[in-house]
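User: Just a sanity check before I run the rest of the batch. Below are the structure tokens for the first item. I only need the designed sequence back.
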């Protein structure tokens, strides 16, 4: 495509190459943040580039239900804009609730009406398509008044989900779960707001360690070279702080002499280069598509092979302690999982990482997933317990759970029970909003996306029916990622050390390690012995710089230059009294808030 002179006026020269690539590429793959700017038109011209791209491109949104309800409202505005521009929209996820599908269709239909009215064209029908691993269904929804179109879509969607639910029930069970009892760890006075004692938290972590050993015993593979019993498992925790704390506990815990754990923390608050190395390693090791009789290909990986050869213990446990980053976009296959619950969706998504590629046995007898009876927030008496992440609202709200006990919230399941997507994709006829975790999520999504009684600039119904889409007020009341204001840090390397910096706006970086109260402290040698993957930021930077620079005199400059590009770390805006600890293996962790 020839150059367009006006682009040099619309976009600054420094960003011209990147902007042209975003606009001209036949297929663009990016985070949703880039395209969301098309609807954020409050000031400046930042919306122009994504809007131009959307005018000529169809929109595909992957793992759409990964966002909280407020962000889903903002994404629905993007779907409405795509309909206004006459573009096609595809939403993708294994756990799309009916209210989300209905809300997105309503928004697209409303946008399509504006598109056809503007073009003064005949009212063309909307073609809706549903695709899964079982079948494809297409429905032609004629252009009509709102109610017939909405009812036709809802009927078609309901029929498709009924067929899918039936097919899921007939499949061999791959995910069998049980509840880990934790009632004895509840604070004695549950009516007051008290912090859980350190001993209680350690007891919670110890309970997790005990069930790690139990799940490993039931689900492992045999290394043909050494005869050792090996398993790969994941412990999903809700937040970054507990992720680091649990990792440190497992590194220092007393394990049986016959067991050798290898542990890794995985969360979003990590330097870009180190997280990239970690994800590349996990993608290679956990791409397990072997047959039951085959030895896992992961055993041939150099790092895994080194662990298996160097330990004397009979049992080797590779344990990933992860936050919700493991639930989306990761094509990993684990032998077992332990879940600290925060939503029913998180349970389904994490379960999808267990035996992801391998065929299930005809009859799964022993559970391969454990769900903790209470999450850490419930044990700490925090309200709401199933929020950030999760859908629960504060006390007094209709969307507040009466109990925090997963036995009650899952409907008093049997000793072991299967996990599948049915409770998420198919709502119950009569929702028990305050008593069932899955019903709570259906009710919250209906309230935000399909409630036609709400009005005003803060409601999605007002955006679609009251012409609030002509103003910027809804963008202020419900902006995208409102709960996640972040600042950009850079781990600037100089020699064999580095310091955290922030951009000054003119291309320079200002040191901020002391100002932000960040303490850089690496794990000691004893803790590092049990690490699954040992990481060294400066060593990796040096290795990358040596590949780019052959001049020894210029190597130091190249290392610093590379750190500006690969040393990025995003951090929520700190509050007064915040302090942080950083290590290459645990990431950046908030330690206090006075």
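Assistant: Here's the designed sequence for the first item:
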């Amino acid at each position: 495509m020839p150059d367009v002179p006006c682009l040099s006026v619309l976009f600054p020269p420094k960003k011209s190459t990147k902007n042209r690539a975003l606009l001209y590429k036949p297929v663009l793959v990016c985070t949703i943040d880039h395209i969301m700017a098309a609807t954020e038109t409050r000031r400046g011209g930042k919306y122009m580039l994504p809007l131009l791209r959307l005018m000529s491109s169809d929109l595909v949104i992957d793992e759409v239900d990964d966002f909280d309800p407020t962000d889903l409202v903002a994404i629905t505005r993007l779907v409405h804009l795509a309909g206004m521009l006459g573009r096609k929209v595809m939403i993708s996820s294994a756990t799309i609730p009916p209210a989300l599908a209905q809300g997105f269709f309503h928004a697209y239909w409303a946008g399509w009406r504006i598109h056809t009215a503007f073009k003064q064209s005949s009212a063309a029908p909307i073609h809706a398509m549903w695709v899964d691993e079982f079948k494809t269904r297409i429905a032609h929804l004629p252009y009509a008044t709102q109610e017939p179109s909405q009812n036709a879509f809802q009927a078609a969607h309901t029929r498709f989900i009924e067929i899918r639910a039936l097919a899921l029930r007939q499949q061999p069970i791959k995910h069998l779960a049980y509840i880990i009892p934790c009632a004895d760890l509840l604070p004695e006075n549950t009516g007051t707001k008290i912090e859980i004692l350190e001993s209680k938290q350690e007891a919670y972590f110890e309970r997790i360690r005990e069930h790690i050993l139990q799940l490993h015993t039931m689900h492992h593979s045999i290394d043909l070279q050494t005869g050792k019993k090996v398993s790969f498992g994941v412990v999903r925790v809700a937040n970054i702080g507990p992720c680091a704390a649990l990792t440190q506990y497992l590194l220092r815990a007393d394990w049986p002499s016959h067991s050798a754990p290898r542990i890794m923390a995985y969360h979003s608050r990590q330097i870009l280069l180190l997280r990239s190395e970690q994800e590349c390693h996990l993608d290679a090791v956990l791409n397990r598509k072997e047959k039951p009789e085959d030895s896992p290909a992961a055993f041939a990986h150099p790092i895994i092979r080194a662990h298996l050869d160097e330990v004397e213990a009979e049992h080797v446990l590779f344990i990933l302690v992860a936050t919700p980053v493991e639930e989306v976009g990761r094509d990993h296959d684990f032998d077992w999982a332990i879940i600290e619950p925060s939503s029913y969706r998180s349970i389904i998504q994490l379960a999808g990482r267990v035996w992801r590629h391998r065929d299930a046995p005809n009859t799964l007898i022993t559970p391969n997933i454990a769900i903790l009876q209470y999450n850490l927030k419930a044990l700490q008496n925090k309200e709401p317990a199933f929020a950030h992440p999760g859908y629960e609202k504060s006390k007094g709200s209709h969307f507040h759970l009466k109990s925090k006990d997963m036995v009650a919230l899952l409907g008093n399941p049997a000793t072991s029970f299967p996990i599948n997507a049915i409770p998420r994709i198919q709502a119950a006829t009569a929702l028990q909003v305050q008593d069932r975790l899955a019903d709570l999520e259906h009710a919250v999504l209906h309230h935000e996306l399909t409630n036609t009684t709400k009005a005003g600039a803060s409601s999605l119904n007002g955006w679609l029916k009251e012409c609030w889409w002509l103003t910027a007020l809804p963008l202020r009341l419900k902006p995208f990622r409102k709960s996640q204001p972040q600042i950009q840090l850079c781990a600037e390397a100089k020699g064999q050390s580095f310091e955290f910096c922030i951009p000054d706006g003119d291309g320079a970086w200002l040191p901020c390690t002391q100002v932000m109260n960040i303490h850089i402290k690496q794990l000691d040698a004893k803790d590092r012995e049990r690490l699954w993957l040992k990481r060294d930021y400066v060593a990796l930077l040096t290795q990358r710089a040596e590949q780019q620079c052959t001049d020894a005199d210029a190597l130091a400059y190249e290392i610093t230059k590379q750190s500006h590009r690969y040393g990025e770390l995003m951090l929520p805006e700190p509050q007064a009294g915040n302090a942080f600890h950083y290590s290459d293996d645990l990431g950046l962790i908030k330690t206090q808030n006075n």
